[in-house]
Amino acid sequence: MKLPALSENRPLRLGSLMLLYAAQGAPEGLLYIAIPAWFASQGISAEAIAGYIAIILLPWSFKLFNGVLMDRFTWLPMGRKRPWLILAQLMLVGSLVWFACLAEPTPALTWFAAIGFAVNFAGAFQDVAIDGMAIDLLDETERASANGLMWGGKTLGTAGFAFLTGVLISDEGHALAAIATAAFVGLVMLLPLLLRERSGEKLLPWMPGRAAAITRERQLTRWWPLLRDVAGAMAKPASLALGAGILVAFAAYGLKTAFSPTLAVQEIGWDRSVFTNRDATADLVGGLFGIFVSGWLADRIGPMKALGCALLGMALLNGAAVFLWQDGGLYFAYLLAYSILFVLMSVCTYAIAMGQSRGTVAATQFSIFMALLNLGTSFGASRLELARGLGGYEAAFSACALLSLFAVGAYVLSVRLDGGRTPSTVLRDQEMRL
């Protein structure tokens, strides 16, 4: 029986995108939550863990180059993004298996960081391929619901595998946790292997089929016009201010991500499994808030106002944590509140970035903003040693608060320089084509 193409079946299309995003979130649950908590329980210092996180996050800063590469080169008979997606998932499975082969963390922390970098390198390619496929296949009227499902899928993948891999590390070690994650990604890889993007395309290279006409029309064939127009768009004052706001706002998030495992395990005294469970719970609560509340709230009061409320809330939350972080119950409340505010900040940032990404290079400009987001996260994580050197965890919380306040000013300036236009949550189809 021949399965329908993704472009022809809405439930199959939306369900596949949600599962693919779940496969993207699963390694994050392992690498960002379970492994750092395991490191902390082994007595590894906060600065060493922050260095690990900063290194493994770096590949997400290269998403712009991934996107341009994928849009310039592909094998159209198998679809515009499906060949890249299959390759990325094969790389992801292979790097997770490699991760499972590592020894205990104390003598091999550098290798954990290096192979974690490789896992995220593959994950970043997978992310860009999924987003590109979504842009090509989704109707404008279903993008909002699709984004909610994709966000929910990633959140469930991250939270679920933070729980699962945390338990597996406790019982069997990190190797089985990495293999379980690789097995899930491999299972989800059956979707791009079995489902064509459009009818008539090749399912596999040796099978019959040909490129769809609409795919040939959308394929990028020249470099210079793209590079020239992107440079001009990013040189605008509004774009520079928005880029600065994104970089700073997510540097605060990276700093918080870096210090959280050691603060909870080594300072507050939580068991490693307690931290992974509570951090995963916070991610799950934030994800559900993102699916059911954040979009409605941003539409209700406007993305800029909602973003300002989120950043001011994060500043106040981190300011209070300067004095209250040593109480375990209050720190769990901090994690829950921070997750909700972070999701709201992220959703509104995407909306504002999309609103300022216009014209024929909108997709590439948006990719640059997202690369700055990930670069800021990595940079923030790498600054933990400096922050703690200025005054311990109190200084780290204070730095997070100040960065959030600075980001508010940069975001406001960017919107005013952009002419006060209402940020859009959806890019028109013609603007998403490179």
TrEMBL record:
UniProt similarity note: Belongs to the major facilitator superfamily.
Protein name: MFS transporter
UniProt KW keywords: Membrane, Transmembrane, Transmembrane helix, Transport
InterPro entries the record matches: AmpG_permease/AT-1, MFS, MFS_trans_sf
Top-level taxon: Bacteria
TM region positions: 35-62, 83-103, 109-130, 151-169, 175-195, 238-255, 280-299, 306-325, 331-353, 360-381, 393-413
GO molecular function list: transmembrane transporter activity
Gene3D superfamilies in the cross-refs: MFS general substrate transporter like domains
Subcellular location: Membrane
Principal subcellular localization: membrane
Lineage, broadest ranks: Bacteria, Pseudomonadati, Pseudomonadota, Alphaproteobacteria, Hyphomonadales
